Amino acid sequence: MKVQEARYVMSNSDYLKCPEPDLPEYAFIGRSNVGKSSLINMLTGKKALAKTSQQPGKTQLINHFIINETWYLVDLPGYGYAKVSKTEREKWEKMINDYLYNRPNLICTFLLIDVRHSALAVDLEFMAQLGEAGIPFHIIFTKADKLKSGQVNTQVEAYKAKLAEIWEEIPPVFVTSAEKNEGRDPVLQAIEAYNRA
Ligand code: GTP
Ligand code: MG
């Protein structure tokens, strides 16, 4: 699929104020700084569409982008950022969860994992919550350029082995680098398959 047009629509703290839920929607979730906003820019080929930062905690609202005028990509705040106050963190978590559990046109989520990290409890717990709520997720390993390709494979295989201990079926897995523009097509193809279904 070609991304012909990608346009910012709006930002909200309240899922009820998000755009009319009349188009298929895909959301990017994961720990703060994992590369959610950068990945949206890489997928759309627009460097500054979603705001990114070296500092965790950049994205603080639910951000809608419309692609080819036919589907939405959603950039969300990250979870698990230790440096903000507990109150602030709980506010973001509630925003994310209210959105995820109540958005009727949310087809599937992409949960991002920094490929350098081994399986973290916070991510595994988040996946468990998604599973319980019946929200499908795919896993995207980010920042693949930070490791040699052999190390990337080792990390991915180790992660899959961990997932296999927990889940009967492992979700689809993608490897990307926003820095090197890698891994774009398989993610867009997965979205296209949903859009056509
Ligand atoms: P929050 O909005 O704070 O939750 O973060 P985020 O998950 O949206 O991360 P963001 O896209 O802002 O990226 C965080 C940092 O990681 C930035 O400095 C990016 O340049 C960097 N980064 C993101 N993706 C990649 C990647 O594939 N490779 C490398 N080397 N750096 C990346
Ligand atoms: Mg962000």
Topology summary:
Blueprint (H helix, E strand, L loop, with lengths): L5 E7 L12 E6 L5 H9 L17 E6 L3 E5 L10 H17 L3 E9 L6 H13 L3 E6 L6 H18 L6 E3 L8 H13 L1
Parallel strand pairs: 2-4, 2-5, 5-6, 6-7
Antiparallel strand pairs: 1-3, 3-4
The structure holds guanosine-5'-triphosphate (GTP) and magnesium ion.
Describe the model.
The protein is of the alpha/beta class and 197 residues long. It has a single domain, classed as P-loop containing nucleotide triphosphate hydrolases (Rossmann fold, 3-Layer(aba) Sandwich). Helices cover 36% and strands 21% of the residues. It has five helices and seven strands, in the order E-E-H-E-E-H-E-H-E-H-E-H. It has helices at residues 36-44, 86-102, 121-133, 149-166, 184-196; strands spanning 6-12, 25-30, 62-67, 71-75, 106-114, 137-142, 173-175. Strand 5 (106-114), helix 3 and strand 6 (137-142) form a beta-alpha-beta unit. The two termini are 15 Å apart. Guanosine-5'-triphosphate (GTP) binds at residues 30, 32-38, 52-54, 56-59, 77-78, 142-143, 145-146, 177-179.
Short summary:
The protein is α/β, with parallel strands linked by helices and 197 residues long.
By DSSP, the count of extended strands is 7
- Our estimate of the beta-strand percent is 15-25%
Biggest beta-sheet profile: 7 strands, mixed
Q: Could you say how many structural domains there are in total?
A: 1
Radius of gyration: 16 Å
SS-derived structural category: alpha/beta
Q: How far apart, in Å, are the first and last alpha carbons?
A: 15 Å
